[in-house]
Amino acid sequence: MKSAKIVAASRSWFGRNAGLRPRLVLIVGVAMLAPGALAVLQAISSYNSSMRILEQNLAQAAQLSATEQVNMISASRDILTSLAAQPDVRAGQGPACRRALQRAIGGLDQYAGASVVDAKGNFTCASSPTRSGVNVADRQWFISVMSGDGFVISDLIVSRWLGTWGISTAVPLVDDDGVIRGAVALFIGLDWLTRRYHSSNQTDDTAFALLDSQGEIITGEAERSPARSPLPRRDIVNEHLREHLQGGQTQTFRARGHDGVWRLYAISPLLGGRIFVILGTPVLTAIGPLALQVAWGVFTPLLMWALAIAVVWFGIEHLVVRWITYLERITSAYAAGRHSVRPERVSAAPAEIRSLGETFSRMADLLSARENELRDSLAQKEILVREIHHRVKNNLQLVMSLLNLHARRIRDPRAEVAFAEARSRINALATLHRRLYESESLQEIDLRWFLDDLCAELRRGGLSRGRNVELNVEAPSEVIGPDVAVPLGLLVTEAITNAYKHAFNERDGGHISVRVTRESPASLLLTIRDDGTGFDMAASTQDQSGLGRSLIEAFVRQLRGELETRSDDGTVVQVRFPAPVKTAEKKHAGHHGVHHHATGHGATGMAPAGAPTAEPSPAPERTKSA
C-alpha cells in the first residue's frame, strides 16, 4: 500500500507556527512581569526611603553637634555665674583669683581659658599667663557686658590673649553697690571642635570643616591642598549656606568634592549660627549596602523569572513535548501503513496523553480492520476481473475452434484465407485477455511479452500456408494498458497478415520483423518490415478500398498515431504514436512460463498505457464487442 509522506509544518519562535514551549514561555514571562515589576518598584522605594533615612541621620549628626555646643554654652553660663560670685574672682587679681579660674575649667577641654577683665577692658586675672597690654575694650562682647547684658556670646573672633580662633562668653562682674566693675569671660577654642569631629570621623574619605557665615573654612582643613580637599566647590557651599540662612534648618545635598569623590554632605549651624559645621561621607560608602539591597531586589524577580522559564521549559519537555513527539512518530508509522505499531510507552505519560495514546490505538485497530475489509474486497474484485478475462479468452478460443471446424469443410482457397484472417484477429484479442488475467495489476501488460505471444500465435495460425517465413520481434519491456494494447495488437495482426498474404506470393520463404523503439519519453515507433516483393506506391495511393488497409488506418487513429507506408526492399509500415514513459513496478508471476517462438531482442524501458481512443472505426468497434 502506498502512502504519501506527511510533511510537518516548520516550527518557529513566533507567529502561527510557534511551538508549544515558546508559547508557554511567553505566557509565563507575561504572567511574571507584574510581580517582577512590583518587586523592582519596592526595591526602588526601599532605596529612596533608606536614602532619606541616611540623609536624616547625617543631618541629625550635625544637629547633635550643634546641640552639644548649645549645652556647652549653657554650661559656660553656669560656670561664669559661679565664678562671678566668688570673692577671689571678684577681687580681680592675685594667685587666689588664678587658682579659682583654673579650678573652674579644669578637665574641660572645650574651654581654652578663663579671664577677669576690669572696667577698662584690661586683663587683670587669667587661668594661664597672658601677654602684657592685652585690652578688649573695643570688642563687642565686652561693650555689651558693660552695657548691662547678663550673659553675652561673641561672634567668631581671634583671641588677643591666646591667639586662636574661638568664641567668648562673658557675664558682668558687679560689686556690692551693683556697679559693673568688669567681666568674667570664658574662651571656647575652635581647635577643640575640630578635634571633636575628627575623633568621631576617623576615615580619610570623610569630609569635615567649620565655616563662617561667608563660607570661609576656619579649621585646619584650609591648610589641605584644594585638589585633595574632600569639600565641594565654594559656590556650592555658599548656595546651601544661603538656603540655611533663609530656612534655618540643616541642609543635605550631594556633590563631588575637589578630589573627585561623590559625597553626601550636611551643613548645620553651631553656636547660634555664628559658625557652621559641614560633614560629608562618600556616596559609595553610604549607599553601598543600599545599592546591594536594590540590586538584590531587582535581581531576585529576574532570577525567579528565569527559574520559572526553566521549569516551564523542562517541565513541558518532560510532560508534554516528548510525548507529542512520540505520538507523532506513531502517527507517521500509521501513515506509512504500519498499523500494527502501538504507543506502548504512553503508559508512563500523564493521564491526558495516555488517553490520547489509547485513542490512537483504537484508531489503528479500526484502520487495520477497514484495510483488511478493503483488501478482501479488492481481492474479490480482482478474482472477478481475472475470471472475466479468462472467460472472454475461453469464449474467443471457442469461436476460433468453431471457425477451424468450418474452415476444414471449405475447399475454396479464398474462403480459407478469409477464415485464417478472422482467426488471427480473434486470436489477438484472446492473447490480450490472457495476458491481462495473468498480470498482477489487471490493467497493464508488458509490451515485449505481449508482442512475442501474439506473433507466436500468428505463426501457428496457418497464415504461412507451408512457406518458410521467419517472424522476429524486438520490443522494449514497457507496460501498456488495454486501451493501447487492443488497437496495437490488432494493427500488428493486420500488418503481419497482409505481409503473409501479399509479400511472398512467388517465394517459398522470407522474413518479417516487428520492432518497437522509443523515440522520446512521450512516443513510441512501431516498424513492421518484410523482405517481400513490395508494392506499387502509385497504385496503392489510388486504391484505398482494401479491408486490411482500412483496418490499419482505423487502428492508427485509435492510437492517435501517424501512419507511414513505403516500399523499401519489401514493405515497411511505420506507426508513431504517443506513449509516455512509465516505470513498471511489478511484473506478473506468469511470465516465466511463456515460450518465445520468435527471435526478438528487447530494450529495458517501460511505458504506461496510451491515451483513450478517438472516433473508433467499425472494425475496432466489432473487435471490442467481441
From TrEMBL:
UniProt catalytic activity: ATP + protein L-histidine = ADP + protein N-phospho-L-histidine
Superkingdom per UniProt: Bacteria
- EC number(s) reported in the record: 2.7.13.3
* Top-level EC class: transferase
Composition-biased stretches (Basic residues): 588-599
Identify the SUPFAM superfamilies for this entry.
ATPase domain of HSP90 chaperone/DNA topoisomerase II/histidine kinase, Sensory domain-like
Q: State the name under which the record lists this protein.
A: histidine kinase
